[in-house]
Amino acid sequence: MTYLKYFASVFIWQFLNPFGIWQTILQNGGQAIAILRSRISRIAAPHIAMSLPFSGYWTVVNGGVDRLNSHSWNLITQRYAYDFVFNGQDRKSDSGKADGFRGFGQDVLAPADGTVIKIRTDIRDYAYAQTGAIDILTRDMRGNYLIIRHAEQVYSFIAHLRRNSCTVKPGDQVKRGQILGQCGNSGHSTEPHIHFHVQDHPNFYLAIGLPIPFQNIEIEYPESHVSKKTTLGYISKNCRVRNFTANEKLPANMPYEISPAKGSLLSFFTSVLNALGLLVWIFFIYIWLIQPIIQAAISKASFF
After folding, report:
1. pTM surpassing 0.90?
2. Which pLDDT score, from 0 to 100, does residue 87 have?
3. Contact by Cβ (8 Å): 158, 144
4. 3-state SS assignment for residue 294
5. Which residue range(s) make up the domain with 34?
6. b/e string for 254-284 if b means 16 or more Cβ within 10 A?
7. What pLDDT, in 10s, does the model give residues 113-152?
8. Can you give the CATH number for the domain in which 160 is found?
């Protein structure tokens, strides 16, 4: 039932919400361009290790570096994205409201030094959480978000922030660990969480996702009750993770290097068809709904 609510609410947003229609066209069109770029250009793996964008333990509920655990393997921008919830998403209350979750309002931190290039802060937080549904009236699937430039072709993207919680503005220089805002439930969010990924381009729609090497992190594996610290490594779904201060010598070599996302031709054609289909849908909405309303208004004005 939860999945049905989710897909039904996303469907309504994509086909009946004007902002959803337009943003879905942008996403599919941008995806097609990004896939072509990934197959033509050489995109280098990021050379900047990131810190986790929070303090304390959070759980990786979505994301990884392989197809099985990936946030969205076929969505090239978010192939190596992560969704984090606070400490297993403990609740302050059983009201079902988003602000009743302990993650709501927790500080979001800069993952590395850089320059803020874009933010959005005016999207409302969806009042309800863990119902499976998203806010069908939202004007932006990303909710409130910010983009930070860390180096050439290395940009971090953090989304679903709490409304009006950003403490920075475009052009600000930020330091690793600096407070940027608060965790919220805005946009396509079914519970308070932090969405985080790294991309090669400043534009969200045109970007190629980059694998994220994290520095100075502790990874806890709940199933095996094993915990390890590493100065450099990758993380995956179902782990609890936190930053730690490196006060002991640990291996600093990456166990292996992940290549940046490379899109398939099937995903390219699917994205193009989706974008064209939505443009056709807009045309029919205009013919069936908007044009008759305009004509009726003109006729009424002419009558008077």
Report:
1. no
2. 84
3. no
4. helix
5. 2-265
6. eeeebebbebeeebbebbbebbeebeeeeee
7. 999 999 999 999 999 998 889 999 999 999 999 999 999 9
8. 2.70.70.10
